[in-house]
Structure formats: structure tokens, C-alpha cells
Amino acid sequence: MGSPRTMEHFTLNPKGTIFGWDTTPEQSMFKRPSNKTPIPNLYLAGAWTFPGGGQSAVIASGGIAAQMILLQDKQ
């Protein structure tokens, strides 16, 4: 438990947001940044990336990034 101020202090997220971008149609699901970046071997996971914010979505984001890394090693 923590206030938005606490979250901002520990995560550096603006105003302590825990869900990343606004969950509007323009900034949700497939319109969020991809887990794979144009930089070789750099993958992203978290509330700011696909599929979005919330505990389950962030866990899924980490799983997606991990799967991409594992599949890359097999290529």
C-alpha cells in the first residue's frame, strides 16, 4: 500500500501512476509500445507497454517479453 506520492518516489512514474498511459482507446492494447524494440536485444515489459496496466497485464507483459527472448535464441 502506498499513496501516489510514494509510488512516484519509488517508481519515478509521473504523479504515481500505476497503470502507465491513460486507458483510453487511443492508448490501449495494440496502440501501446511493443515489447520488442528496434534496438537489438532490448525488450520492454511493464504497465507502459503492451498489453497495458494492472497486475495481470504487467505479468503478461513480462511473459511476452520473456517468450520473445527465448524464441530469439532458437533462431
Structural class: mainly alpha
Please report the number of helical segments.
Answer: 2
Order of helices and strands: HH
**Helix content percent band:** 25-40%
Please mark out the parts with pLDDT under 50 across 5 or more consecutive residues, or reply none. Answer: none
Rg calculated over all Cα atoms: 14 Å
Number of strands: 0
Largest sheet: none
Shape: globular
SSE map:
Elements: H1 4-11, H2 55-74
What does this molecule look like?
There is one protein chain. This protein has 75 residues and is mainly alpha-helical. The chain has one domain. The chain has helices at 4-11, 55-74. The longest helix is centred in the C-terminal third of the chain and has 20 residues, at 55-74. The N and C termini lie far apart (42 Å). The mean pLDDT is 88.
Short description:
The chain is mainly alpha-helical and 75 residues long. It contains 2 helices and no strands.
